[in-house]
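Exam revision sheet. Question 4 asks you to relate a sequence to its structure. Input first:
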Amino acid sequence: MMKTLIIGATGQIGKMTTQKMLQTGHQVVALARNKDKLADIHSPHLSVVEQDLENNFSHAFKDCELVIFTAGSGGGTSADKTMLIDLWAAVKAINYAKQHSVQHFIMVSSIGADAPDNIESSIKPYLVAKHMADQYLLSSGLKYTILRPGTLLNEPASKRFSFKRPHSRADAVISRENVAEALNFVATESPNDSIIVELFDGDSKLESFFH
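Answer key, structure tokens:
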């Protein structure tokens, strides 16, 4: 298994992804602002780097072949914090990944990041930040997978997905644990081609889309 850096490892999706990847046999480097939030995870395959994303965190990339960026400023934060974390920290991570010859960069983006002007919402600054971070990754030359999940729910993983945006906004949802399942799958299988995928709860297995 590749050595994987998870950025945002103490967030809800990030922590679930860390746990699932350790169970799969990955060697994981978890980047966290507060390492105490990972104190309940015990594995010889886990190392934790404590660092704020607003500072230099390039040292966390040492010997990592795969990067998962699942950091987020949170829905209740100001637009300036969204810019610093969802955009600028993502840009720095992409630059660090290039410097360290990372083989695959997996970005957790959002539905609506393709065209932020099409959604009238208070989260538009977040969507703009995600859009620009995605575009920077697209032009980076790195192999990438960009996952754009729908509205996130705190439900158990069904391990069943849809890859087509529903007509109803109310149906454009996905559980956080299903996103973590998808991240673990993509990291483990490491598809050959760079790809952007919209993800929702549905009826299909991940294998049906990625193979």
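Marking note for examiners. The chain has a mean pLDDT of 93.
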